Amino acid sequence: MLDRLTPSGVAVPAFLITWSLVVILPLLVIVLFSFLQVKSYRVVYVPTLGTWESVIDSGRWIVAVRTLRIAITMTLIELLLAFPFALWLAKGCKSKPAKAIIITLLTIPFFLDTSSRIIVWRSILGTNGIVNTVLTSMGIVDEPISWLLYSEFAVHFGMLGSYFPTMVFPIFMIMSLIDDDYIQASSDLGASPGQTLLYVILPMSLPGVVAGVVFTLVPLMAAFVEPQMLGGGFVNLLGNSVNSALQELKYPTAAALSTIVVALLGVCLAALILITRKRFDMSTMFQAIRR
Amino acid sequence: MPNGQSALATPTMERAPAAGQAAGAVPDREGPARQGNVQPMLEVIDAVHAYGDVVALDNVTVTAAPGEFLTILGESGSGKTTLLRLISGLEKPYKIGALRLNGVDVSEVPAFSRNCTTVFQNYALFPHMTVGANVEYGLRVRGVPPDERRQRAQDALKLVRLADKYDRRIHQLSGGERQRVALARALVPRPAILLLDEPLGALDEKLRVDMQVELMEIHKSLGMTFVYITHSQEEALTMSDRIILMRKGRIEQAGTPHEIFDRPVSRFVAGFMGVENLMEATLVGLDGDDALVEVDGQRMAGAWSGRTRPAVGDKVVVGMRAERLHIADRPPQGPGLNVLPGRLDSAIYKGKYLDRTVLTEVGPIKVRLWDSSSSTAEQGFVWWKKADCMVMSA
Questions:
Q1: Interstrand relation of B326-328 and B354-360 (parallel, antiparallel or unpaired)
Q2: Is the pLDDT of residue B8 over 50?
Q3: How is the beta sheet containing B242-247 ordered, strand by strand?
Q4: Most C-beta atoms within 10 A of its C-beta, which of B16, B22, B124, B266?
Q5: Which residues from B are below 8 Å from A196, CB to CB?
Q6: What average pLDDT does this structure show over A138-147?
């Protein structure tokens, strides 16, 4: 069986070619497109830096910085929330039905449309929303809190639920693979629960953490629903800019902005690999979990 | 003689070839060992534990003297691993009278604060660390400075003859090497008690025998208290100062290897310790330990080794080891001999010896012949000494 799973001489090149055609080639086209111009709905095949100049002059690089900042902040927040949650789900939660229910609940963000999920928050966080109504009627605040909606806070808050499962699932799965014996051996050798977490559980769940960061950071860089619905025009991200550029048929602008997204992601992932490579070899990391 | 042994521990260490190298892993034995002559190193009093409805331990009491090699023997499900996990603190007992390590009650102390370490059955070596980091782990979590812990880890690796493997990764090691790394890792924090959970179970036959000898040498040179779990009677007999045989969460018999091997208290113990011929019998007479029993009308003289003394007429079990039986063409004469006529049946060739079945009036009896040319006759007599005829509780 394992013999038959060994890729033949054709499989690897076939995969590389298909992947290039489906993913990498469109990416290159996008990059190339950002150096072209569209005049009266027709593409002019003359290389120009015009689009890039206008992107930089119009201050859209601030949008890029903001996007990166929010994406990284959200990834860190999700990581801090998801790690203990995944640990509890994998090792602490002894009830099988409870575990099954929680895993099912975690998939809800995947089967509901983002816009319809997010728009609900408007009626909760708005100045006439539930939170403010309760707070004012109880006399905790004199007037409605305005920064609850149409603010960076609201955008972060709205993203919380959408990007939680993508962080939890990989970490949960890798933690489920960690044999309880390792945790017991650590404790048996005199490690406090904190030391066991730091020296055994954390390094052994690192592949899941890396996967979770990638799966969360990448879509966050392209997020546009939350900022559009909850940012109220104050929190413009690259995703929104790409969207509006496309709607205005400014294809080269959209291409240039997308290139920025891809470049920023590339830098982030390269940094992630550099940080983790020093102590952990990605390809053998999963192998190490096995006995 | 665990007490005598612990008093001798220090001179033994100096004589042992590995002692100099072992210095790093020698536990601090000054105080406890001296007092230990009166105070047990380990006391488990009235431990009760259950998994759901299954009783794993039923009022078990176990003590171990300092420096003792105590083996807990039993088949799977006898509760031996549960007992070990209670001692290490990895399992919390349902109810326990007392659990004392070196005189201190630790029943409420978490596993990581107990002064004992475990060699796990599957080793549980951390796969993301090197051999050295694994061995140092117990010192690292105690805040021992890097230089010292490296030194002590290397000493321990030397003790298990893996000095050159310090920088290897775990998956680069063979099964036997992993076994020894697990042993070194457990020894390095200098625990009061080393718990070993079937540590040789995963090794092949030859390696297992080698490791038995190695473990005994390490035990002797360190003078540490070992509590060893196994299902192998051969391992238990070879290594232990004392054996506790468990069955269904209870202690069936406790004693030295000699006592367990030669004086089993019950049919279960005899069967577990490999007594081939076991028969139900009725007690005819009992004078001191001299027992007279009747099996299918045949009278046999034996030695009583059972639990509570039975009354005449009670059901008992009589057992003979195949290697203590003899075959003769003519009935031998002499006092205190049991003789049964029989027909020689099948033979199983085992290389070093020959197992023959003799059909007698009391049923087939297995006889082990070391000299394969001893008898070829069809009819013959099986005979054995009274002392080799064990009479025990049913």
A1: unpaired
A2: no
A3: B116-119, B193-197, B225-230, B69-73, B242-247, B250-255
A4: B124
A5: 112
A6: 83
pLDDT digits (tens, 9 = 90+) for A25-38: 888 888 888 888 87
Find the range with the poorest average confidence among B154-163, B308-317, B365-374: B365-374
In sequence order, the 6+-apart residues with CB closer than 8 A to the CB of B344 are B327, B356, B357, B358, B359, B375, B377, B378, B379, B380
Q: How many CB pairs below 8 A link A and B?
A: 70
Assign B2 a pLDDT band (cuts: 50, 70, 90).
very low
- The verdict on ipTM greater than 0.95 is no
Restricting to A residues 134-193, those with a Cβ less than 8 Å away from any Cβ of B are 179, 181-182, 184-193
Q: For domain A60-289, is the CATH number 3.40.50.300?
A: no
pLDDT tens for B119-143 read 998 899 998 899 999 999 999 999 9
Per the listing, tokens 């998956």 go with: B171
Distance from CA of B188 to the nearest CA of A (A): 9
Query: How is residue B287 annotated by DSSP?
Result: E
Closest C-alpha among B224, B252, B256 to residue B239? B256
**B169 secondary structure, DSSP code:** B
Best to test chain B binding among A186, A189, A196 (most B CBs inside 10 Å): A189
Of all residues in chain A, the one with the smallest CA distance to B113 is: A190
Task: Please answer yes or no on whether A185 and B128 come within 8 Å at the CB atom.
Answer: no
Q: How far apart are CA B130 and CA B255, in angstroms?
A: 41
What is the residue extent of each domain of chain A? Answer: 60-289
Helices (H), chain B: 2-15, 19-22, 30-35, 80-88, 131-140, 146-159, 175-187, 205-222, 233-239, 257-262, 267-272
Backbone angles phi, psi at B150, to 5 degrees: -65, -45
* Amino acid (one-letter) located at A1: M
Contacts of B110 in chain A (CB under 8 A): 187
Instruction: List, in order of start, the domains of chain B with CATH numbers.
Output: 2-262 (3.40.50.300), 275-393 (2.40.50.100)
Q: DSSP state, A20?
A: I
**Judged by CB atoms within 8 Å, which residues 258-287 of A form the interface with B?**
280, 287
Residue B354 in contact with residue B392, Cβ under 8 Å?
Answer: no
Residue B83's pLDDT is 93
Give the mean model confidence (pLDDT) for residues B150-172: 91
